[in-house]
Specification:
The complex is a heterotrimer of chains A (341), B (274) and C (286). Chain A is of the alpha/beta class. Chain A has 2 domains: 167 residues, Periplasmic binding protein-like II (D-Maltodextrin-Binding Protein, domain 2), CATH 3.40.190.10; 146 residues, D-Maltodextrin-Binding Protein, domain 2, CATH 3.40.190.10. Helices cover 38% and strands 16% of the residues of chain A. In chain A, strands 4, 5, 6, 7, 8 and 9 form a 6-stranded mixed beta sheet that branches. A 3-stranded parallel beta sheet of chain A has the order 2-1-3. In chain A, α5 crosses α6. Chain B has 274 residues and is mostly helical. Chain B has a two-stranded antiparallel ribbon with strand order 1-2. At the B-C interface, α1, α3, α4, α5 and α7 of B face α1, α3, α4, α5 and α6 of C.
């Protein structure tokens, strides 16, 4: 036993004992969410070594950062997670004067609820929630959440297996805020979702986009980034933002408290905001970039695609998800009820 | 053999990495944290005994049981055939059973989606040979199929390892004494393989109970199982107390029923093994 | 005829086990990122795979962790199985229940409780913590694989070996270990399988710079798992197959040599020693 532990320790020392002289930047991002050749260029230009790790959900990332067991310098949380991390004082303030390229970021995508003065975060990608549909299966105009409750599409509808998003769609159909704390409104949303359940083919997470590409369902509740990917694989698909309004989301860059290389982190954020770099990431991921200069360089059919880059009038009723605090437990109870119903 | 000493490394290891973390879970289960501080409570447990959550537990146990039984009925003959003389390269056959599990789990499960979908491989195949379509994706059947697929090797291998060295003399002796092959199986082979069967059942039933990815992907998220519920408490809701309480209740229920089972098993062993 | 039917049954099960593997291999040649559309035949994922440093380092850590963790778990687990086998009564029951806990605990509970423990003792999350976690959830599977073989063991085998003049060490290594070898191998294989398949526990117990293939693949889920992972799986699968064939051809050659040599006893298992598994010998002790 002692020998075993000793050998583990030695092994780990050998493994971690690699050269430590170069400054290192620890980056924590969603999987496959960056053109990785950019990391090499950043290393070459600055001499900073990048250690790049990936996570699958905001919640996974949050628990890891919260535990304090490993430290990162740059993280990529989404909007509502930023609220939660700010409430728990987990983010470092950003010195914007160090990030000169932030001038390229679009004005109307800055200063949103989760970070009104842009003191802590800069947007990396953004998008909306909406309905992805197959034009060969849906004839009518898709412009309202109501279509997800239309019995004509029984077993042709994919909803998201995500509490906030699916309950959010029901709340929007009812004309309520997606951040409601009103239990009466939530109960109405729950009834609506229970009524919808017989029509739903499945509650999906990440596999939904491929199902839509394969023509397995007619309608799906989706995020615009995934919709862009699905539409590029299957031209029959279209994406609509319902007129009742929807959720607008942001994946942002931030520096967690306890970061060891803040200087490097700022350099990295500045680097990612360079128009040509932002352009490459937008092209690689297919998600919408908040960088106006990069957007201007995109091919016209992407730039003018209202699904990825909606016009002002599409965004009139949009809301950002904010952290709900203890009311989240009520959302959870409702969701369990809907699914175990 | 020095009996007293051999247990020590294991006990040390398990105390450090199982018992201490479990105590932590117990602590979370019995406390509730509010802005005013942490207080002891039974609230997490009382919440679990609401009908909606009990239904989730019951459904999970039922699915895991069905999965275990199917694995046993499919897997036992496989193990027996492998241990017999139908194949000369037994080691290869055994390895071929485990190799599929070395491919990425998520990709394997996605592949099942591709196979079972409405326009999936299976239905395309059925329609070419003139059979009716079948839609089993997003049903309990699909969930059980996914579980059986993933846990079958855990049933076959331990049974095979026991059967592969059963004394041929015993079987021949039973035959010489006039037992037909069914009697030989029921009275000699099966009782002798029982330790392997018990291990197999344990290694299938327990993980099947708490799986959550299979039920989410193949069940279309329509059937919340206990694994999904616990995962959701820890990650999405951030209610570690409730999540801990659920898993504690589940562990206690299962260990108690195992204790009842092992009571019978011990008696069996005395009667049949020697 | 019966033999033929038996083989058919096993082949049928193989078809069931390998159907999804075939599907995922086919999609490694798909010139489209999506599982839902066939974009034509391509080798580009294979080319891109070898340029992807994230995937290549994850592969390295996956194999390193899988092999180290399963070996260490096999040693600890086998010793523990002996100890459990030799104990009685309440003590045995308690230790067995302890063994069941990691199997029964939902992954997320094991993961988070271990993570908190590691952070609490100021162990930096990384390779060591990942390895410790893997060994911990592997040990029970080794025990559960070895224990049935010990129960099956003829109680008098050990004493008989001593009577025949073997020293206790010889009796242990030459008689007992070969007898339970199939159980040990089963345990090690299952442990390795669990190690390379695990996502949840790995994710929460690893630290910056150390990622496994499962973690890399799962985190790609939102954007769709890149077919590079399919390509890697295909290569791994074919490699294992080739290795199996090589080992077998070699074994066969050795066996032939052995046949031409002194005795014609057919080895059932590469590891079994014929002197002690001779049915005649066993039946003497019935």
């Amino acid at each position: 036993m002692g020998v075993l532990l000793l050998s583990i320790l030695i092994l780990s020392m050998v493994l971690s004992g690699c050269k430590k002289d170069r400054p290192t930047l620890y980056v924590y991002n969603w999987g496959d969410y960056i053109d990785e050749s950019i990391l090499g260029e950043f290393e070459k230009e600055t001499g900073i070594k990048v250690v790049y790790d990936t996570f699958a959900t905001n919640e996974d990332m949050y628990v890891k950062i919260k535990s304090g067991g490993s430290s990162y310098d740059v993280i990529f949380p989404s909007d509502y997670m930023v609220t939660r991390m700010l409430e728990e004082d987990m983010l470092e303030k950003i010195d914007l004067s160090q990030i000169t390229n932030h001038k390229y970021l679009e004005e109307n995508l800055m200063g949103t609820e989760y970070d009104p003065k842009n003191e802590y975060t800069l947007p990396y990608m953004w998008g909306t929630m909406g309905i992805l549909y197959n034009t060969t299966m849906v004839d009518e105009v898709v412009d309202s959440w109501d279509i997800l409750w239309d019995p004509k599409y029984t077993k042709e509808i994919l909803m998201l297996d995500s509490q906030r998003d699916s309950i959010g769609a029901a709340l929007l159909k009812l004309g309520y805020s997606i951040n409601t704390l009103n239990l009466q409104e939530l109960a109405e949303a729950a009834d609506l979702l229970k009524k919808q359940k017989p029509l739903v083919l499945a509650y999906v997470v990440d596999e939904g986009k491929d199902k839509m590409v394969a023509g397995e369902a007619a309608l799906a509740l989706t995020w615009s980034g995934e919709a862009a990917y699905a539409r590029s694989e299957n031209p029959d698909l279209a994406y609509a933002i319902p007129k009742e309004g929807t959720n607008i989301w942001f994946d942002v860059m931030a520096i967690p408290k306890g970061a060891n290389n803040i200087e490097g982190a700022l350099k990295f954020m500045d680097f990612l905001n360079r128009p040509e770099i932002a352009l490459r990431n937008a092209e690689y991921t297919g998600y919408a970039t908040p960088n106006s200069a990069a957007k201007a360089m995109l091919p016209e059919e992407i730039r003018n695609d209202r699904g990825s880059y909606p016009e002002e009038q599409d965004l009139v009723n949009t809301e950002v998800f904010v952290n709900l605090g203890s009311t989240l437990r009520d959302y959870d109870r409702i969701w369990t009820e809907v699914k175990a119903y | 053999m020095k009996r007293n000493l051999t247990m020590i490394p294991y006990l040390v290891w398990m105390s450090l990495f199982v018992i201490i973390p479990m105590l932590l879970i117990v602590y979370y289960a019995f406390t509730v944290t509010t802005p005013e501080g942490t207080t002891w409570t039974l609230e997490n447990f009382s919440r679990f005994f609401e009908p909606i959550y009990l239904r989730v537990l019951w459904r999970s146990v039922a699915l895991a049981l069905v999965c275990t039984l199917i694995c046993l009925f499919i897997g036992y003959p496989v193990a027996m055939i492998m241990a017999g003389n139908a194949f000369t390269r037994k080691n290869v056959v055994m390895l071929l059973f485990i190799v599929p599990m070395w491919m990425n789990f998520l990709l394997r499960t996605y592949a099942w989606l591709t196979i079972l979908e409405r326009n999936g491989f299976l239905n395309v195949f059925f329609s070419t040979i003139g059979l009716p379509q079948m839609n089993i994706l997003y049903t309990n059947t699909a969930v059980v199929l996914g579980m059986v697929y993933n846990f079958l090797p855990f049933m076959v291998l331990p049974i095979y390892s026991v059967l592969s060295k059963i004394d041929k003399g015993v079987i021949e002796a039973a035959g010489d004494l006039g037992a037909n092959s069914f009697q030989v199986f029921m009275r000699v082979i099966f009782p002798l393989s029982l330790p392997g069967v018990v291990s197999g059942i344990t290694m299938v039933f327990m993980p099947a109970l708490t799986t959550f990815v299979i039920s989410r992907l193949l069940g279309g998220g329509q059937f919340t199982l206990i694994g999904n519920l616990i995962e959701q408490q820890f990650l999405v809701v951030g209610n570690w107390g409730f999540g801990s309480a659920i898993s504690m209740v589940m562990i206690v229920v299962i260990l108690l029923s195992m204790a009842v089972m092992s009571f019978f098993e011990d008696e069996d062993k005395e009667a049949t093994l020697w | 005829m019966v033999k033929f039917l038996k083989r058919c049954y096993v082949y049928l099960i193989f078809a069931f086990l390998y159907m999804p593997i075939m599907v995922l291999m086919v999609y490694s040649f798909n010139d489209s990122r999506s599982r839902g559309a066939w974009g034509g035949f391509t080798f580009r994922w294979y080319v891109e795979l070898f340029q992807d440093r994230t995937i290549m380092t994850s592969l390295y850590y996956t194999l390193l962790i899988g092999i180290t963790a399963s070996l260490i778990a096999t040693v600890i687990g086998t010793i523990a199985a002996f100890a459990i086998h030799n104990s009685r009564g309440l003590k045995k029951k308690l230790v067995m229940n302890l063994t069941y806990i990691p199997v029964l605990n939902p992954d997320i509970v094991t993961a988070i409780s271990l993570m908190i423990l590691f952070v609490f003792v100021k162990l930096r999350l990384g390779f060591v913590t990942l390895l410790l976690a893997h060994i911990t959830f592997n040990i029970p599977y080794v025990i559960l694989s070895v224990l049935p073989k010990l129960r099956q063991l003829n109680k008098h085998l050990y004493e008989a070996a001593l009577d025949l003049g073997a020293t206790p060490t010889q009796a242990f290594w030459k008689v007992i270990i070969p007898e339970i070898m199939p159980g040990i191998i089963t345990g090690m294989l299952l442990a390795f399988t669990l190690s390379i398949d695990d996502f949840v526990i790995s994710f929460f117990t690893t630290g910056s710079g150390v990622s496994t293939l499962s973690i890399t693949a799962y985190s790609m889920a939102r954007r769709g798992i890149n077919p590079k992972i399919n390509a890697l799986s295909t290569i791994m699968f074919l490699l294992v197959l080739v290795l199996l064939v090589i080992v077998n051809v070699r074994q066969e050659r050795e066996q032939k040599k052995g046949m031409n040599g002194k005795n014609g006893s057919k080895k059932q298992n590469g590891s079994s020693s014929p002197e002690y598994t001779d049915p005649q010998y066993g039946s003497k002790w019935m």
